[in-house]
Amino acid sequence: DAGVIQSPRHEVTEMGQEVTLRCKPISGHNSLFWYRQTMMRGLELLIYFNNNVPIDDSGMPEDRFSAKMPNASFSTLKIQPSEPRDSAVYFCASSLEARFSGVSSYNEQFFGPGTRLTVL
Amino acid sequence: AQSVTQPDIHITVSEGASLELRCNYSYGATPYLFWYVQSPGQGLQLLLKYFSGDTLVQGIKGFEAEFKRSQSSFNLRKPSVHWSDAAEYFCAVGAPPGYALNFGKGTSLLVTP
């Protein structure tokens, strides 16, 4: 199993440029999460998709950030325009969320290796 | 709102010594608690989780954690630390649906010879 795949692994860009981070979840998983890790704020949830639909985007910092999941095997996180304070490691995670009688059951979230973003 | 506090930013232990990493949570309902480990430059790996039942849970790599509702704590322990355990450890709380994770700030573990 390939696990969660993220690309690129490292990205260096200049302030004002558009940045697109990509994630391929584990095949068969139906929930996808984007997290950001910084020294100041630690690990924080940005957005969570279930069956390709955004369920909770309350962690998205501002309008410069957008995330999409056009199909079950691909998601993007876009920053436009980027700023130095966006420098962080961005993690994607996926899980299989099953529901029985409307109750969501837990399955482990598997994390990708992360994308280290540096905005100069 | 749910939150997690890890009081210790850094901990140093000698190889072979016992380890306890502290975690306190704030959550209105029954918490779903997790411990993750992150090695340098790597993603996060689940060590163990607690949902209900036995308050002492066993995880991978010889780790265990004890849930204490009266103290709102979920401390991680290992009886004998190995040099390979040096990493960043994160306590997290999640809830259905989806179990999106709310992490503590992490504890960095250094293991000395």
What can you tell me about this protein's structure?
The complex is a heterodimer of chains A (120) and B (113). Helix content of chain A is 0%, strand content 57%. Chain A is mainly beta. In chain A, the strands form 3 sheets. In chain A, strands 2, 4, 5, 6, 9, 12 and 13 form a 7-stranded mixed sheet that branches. Chain A has a 4-stranded antiparallel sheet with strand order 1-3-8-7, with no helix packed on it. In chain A, 35% of the residues are buried. Chain B starts with a strand and ends with a strand. The A-B interface holds A 4, 31, 33, 35, 42-45, 48, 50, 55-56, 91, 93, 95, 97, 99, 103-106, 108-109, 111-114 and B 32, 41-46, 49, 51, 90, 94, 96-106.
Give the SSE layout.
The complex is a heterodimer of chains A (120) and B (113).
Chain A (H helix, E strand, L loop, with lengths): L4 E3 L2 E4 L5 E6 L6 E8 L3 E9 L2 E4 L8 E7 L2 E6 L8 E8 L2 E3 L2 E3 L4 E2 L3 E5 L1
Parallel strand pairs in A: 2-13
Antiparallel strand pairs in A: 1-3, 3-8, 4-5, 4-9, 5-6, 7-8, 9-12, 9-13, 10-11
Chain B lengths: L2 E3 L4 E5 L4 E3 L2 E3 L5 E7 L5 E7 L5 E3 L5 E5 L4 E6 L8 E8 L6 E3 L3 E6 L1
Parallel strand pairs in B: 2-12
Antiparallel strand pairs in B: 1-4, 3-9, 5-6, 5-10, 7-8, 8-9, 10-11, 10-12
Give a short account of the largest sheet of chain B.
6 strands, mixed
Mean pLDDT of chain A: 92
Rounded to the nearest angstrom, the radius of gyration of chain A is 14 Å
Could you give the count of β-strands of chain A? 13
- Uncertain spans of chain B: none
N-to-C order of helices and strands of chain A: EEEEEEEEEEEEE
Number of helices of chain B: 0
What is the quaternary state of this protein?
A: heterodimer
Q: What percent of residues of chain B are in strands?
A: over 45%
Helix content of chain B: under 10%
Question: Whole-Å distance between the termini of chain B?
Answer: 41 Å
- The percent range for strand residues of chain A is over 45%
What sort of overall outline of chain B do the alpha carbons produce when their principal axes are compared? globular
Count every helix of chain A, treating DSSP H or I runs of 4 or more residues as helices.
0
Going by helix content, strand content and strand pairing, the class of chain B is mainly beta
Biggest interface, chains and residues, is:
A-B, 27 and 22 residues
Radius of gyration of chain B: 13 Å
N→C terminal distance of chain A:
36 Å
